[in-house]
Specification:
The complex is a heterodimer of chains A (about 180) and B (about 475). Chain A has about 180 residues and is α+β, with helices and mostly antiparallel strands. Helix content of chain A is about 40%, strand content about 15%. Helix content of chain B is about 70%, strand content about 0%. Chain B has 15 helices and no strands.
């Protein structure tokens, strides 16, 4: 923030759109202009939008795979250890490591670990729960969970300039452009 | 939607082709969808019928608490169980409830993977049904243990007795299958609700409601990268829940099939149990959804298409179940085993024959009406058929559990079984618990997934859709 103008720092500039298509077009133009620290907010998942705003890496599937493997090994390991090592019990001369009867529990634990990781991982990677976020300071932003589509250029972007970015966003057929207070 | 962008000349429709009713009727926009579904909870007056049905459910729930209280006081002797029939109502009801739950997971997970967009407006509802049905199911094995407060002995944990569960027993597999199923169903349901909690937070006028929905929404703001991870997680969950739902009723059927009792020891049990579970689950969804869509005027979101499709799933799974009955009979004849043959004759002509034949009437004959479009499109007939199927599936479990146990190998140990008033009270009580939970859910949470129906608005707007 420059000392010359007495405005407090802002989180960014928020443009509002009517349809997912106009939002995507606007995102493309903003990206083409060279902005990188942007985010889009929509009331339902819009296909391809995440890629347009520059989101590529998705750790989640790997985490879920890992958790599934841990669940499978842990589940089988538990049963093997219990039945073969800790408490060997001879039932009608059957092998202590009777692995076919260990499969159902191994399977269920694989699913349990993977599913818990899918949900908790998604929440954690998304940085949730986050009760406060600057975008909620925009009164119109309540519509982002209903029927409006928003594009926010964040002030941490190198190209960000309060006036120039504002004019640029206004030129993208946005319904309105507002400043997002911290 | 694969068909959306096809040119109009692609496939000429045959003469007399009628486009199926849409999955979302009327001129809905994002805003009207949001207002309509959230309004049921936030703004509309609670209809009188809600109070009536909730009242019935709540009263029966009190019956349940009474029956369980007396059970804890006196022990399982108040039930009709005896030797040889040690598995009475408790196991019948357990299998019945857990089966009902399966439709929820099928609708939310399997139909999602198959990209059936008609699942969208009924999945939330069906998932809630799953959750509450599993809660009711879980009561029975725990109460049947006699000392329910020691239920945690079923879990493997280091204890002073130095004992472990018997991992080779299907009853222990059941503990893992049902608890995993309950957990994953809860996760699936909650994850589906998170963006809608955000909507409720933003729509709520009442401060307390806003705070509660706000906390439940985890601060959801609909960011593009969040949606991306969200969809990945949801898809992965669906992929995980699909084999899970098949495994759960398979394991339940192992409780029977791994034993050596005539009529239980068969390999047809897993597939036919899974089909039966889906059959009864769809019947229960119809039983609930038909009155609710009338009470709340949701005919534009839960359309004839939904009812029609559910009726078809019921017909298909009903035929698989009928095939299961047929194979059971065939194998007992073809297997040339005295005890199996006697079991089949005893089912058809023994002391429980009226129950067997009612089961055939309910589960095999009645659903044949669903071949006809006229009946599938008639909500009253559909509602009645769904109730008949619910009853039929309960009778099926009665026949499986009771007729096999009451006369096995040794005639000197034969006996008879009848449920007592406490058995019936506990059973009716769980129906009350289920209804009460279901109607509380309808009152405080959006019963249709708002954000997913918004996506339907988007596809419906496109031109040349459903030519």
């Amino acid at each position: 923030m420059e000392r010359a103008d007495f405005k407090p720092a802002i989180y960014g500039l928020m443009a509002e759109f009517d349809t997912p298509d106009t939002l995507i077009q606007a995102v493309r133009k903003v990206r083409a202009e060279g902005y990188t620290r942007i985010d889009a907010y929509t009331p339902f998942p819009v296909e391809g939008l995440a890629e347009e705003v520059g989101f590529h890496s998705n750790l989640l599937p790997i985490l879920v795979l890992g958790a599934g493997i841990v669940g499978a090994l842990g589940g089988f390991g538990l049963q093997y250890w219990v039945s073969k090592i800790d408490y060997p019990l001879n039932v009608g001369g059957r092998p202590l490591n009777s692995w076919p009867s260990f499969i159902p529990v191994t399977f269920e634990l694989t699913i349990l670990f993977a599913a818990l990781t899918a949900v908790l991982g998604m929440i954690a990677l998304n940085g949730l729960p986050m009760p406060y976020h600057p975008v909620f300071n925009v009164p119109r932003f309540a519509m982002a969970s209903q029927d409006r589509f928003f594009l926010c250029v964040e002030s941490t972007d190198e190209k960000f300039d309060r006036e120039k970015t504002l004019t640029f966003l206004q030129g993208l057929h946005a319904k309105a452009v507002t400043e997002v207070d911290y | 939607m694969a068909t959306v962008d096809q040119p109009k000349t692609a496939t000429p429709r045959p003469e007399g082709y009628e486009a199926p009713p849409s999955v979302l009727e009327g001129d809905h926009t994002y805003a009207t969808v949001t207002d309509k579904i959230s309004g049921i909870v936030l703004t509309r007056k609670t209809p009188l019928s809600w109070f009536l049905i909730f009242g019935v459910g709540f009263s029966l729930m009190m019956v349940f608490f009474g029956a369980v209280g007396y059970l804890l006081l006196k022990g399982t002797g108040i039930w009709g169980i005896n030797v040889p029939v040690a598995w009475g109502f408790a196991i019948i009801n357990f299998v019945w409830w857990i089966g009902i739950g399966h439709a929820g997971t099928l609708i939310s997970a399997i139909l999602l993977l198959m990209r059936q967009e008609w699942r969208t407006s009924i999945n939330r509802f069906a998932e809630a049904m799953t959750l509450f049905a599993v809660a009711c199911a879980g009561m029975f094995p725990i109460l049947h243990m006699g000392r329910p407060w020691l239920f945690y002995w079923l879990l493997p944990y280091p204890n002073v007795m130095s004992l472990w569960p018997q991992f080779r027993s299907p009853l222990v597999w059941d503990v893992f299958a049902v608890s995993t199923y309950g957990t994953v169903s809860l996760l699936f349901w909650f994850v589906g609700l998170v963006p809608d909690f955000g909507t409720m937070r933003d729509k709520a006028q009442n401060g307390t409601a806003r705070v509660i929905y706000g906390m439940l929404s985890l601060g959801w703001r609909g960011s593009a990268s969040h949606w991306h991870r969200y969809e990945t997680a949801y898809l992965l969950l669906a992929g995980l829940a699909t084999p899970l739902v098949v495994s759960v009723h398979t394991v339940v059927s192992f409780d029977f099939a791994v034993s050596v009792i005539p009529g239980w020891h068969t390999t047809v049990f897993p597939p036919y149990f899974v089909a039966g579970a889906i059959y009864s689950g769809f019947a229960m969804v119809l039983t609930l959804v038909i009155p609710i869509r009338a009470i709340y005027g949701l005919e534009d979101m839960i359309t004839r298409r939904h009812l029609n499709n559910m009726a078809k799933v019921m017909l298909a799974t009903g035929l698989i179940v009928a095939y299961g009955y047929m194979i059971e009979m065939f194998m007992s004849w073809y297997g040339a085993n005295n005890f199996e043959q006697y079991m089949s004759r005893n089912r058809m002509a023994g002391p429980y024959a009226p129950i067997f034949w009612s089961l055939i009437l309910c589960n095999v004959l009645t659903p044949q009406l669903l071949w006809f479009k006229r009946f599938r499109n008639n909500v009253v007939v559909l509602f009645l058929i769904s109730i008949v199927v619910n009853i039929g599936m309960w009778l099926e479990r009665y026949v499986i559990v009771i007729t096999s146990l009451h006369r096995d190998y040794l005639p000197s140990s034969w006996g008879m079984y009848h449920g007592t008033i406490w058995d019936y009270a506990t059973y009716a009580g769980t129906i009350g618990l289920f209804l009460a939970l279901m109607f509380l859910f309808i009152r405080v949470l959006p019963m249709i997934s708002i954000f997913e129906v918004r996506s339907l608005v988007k596809t419906n707007r496109r031109p040349s859709h459903t030519e």
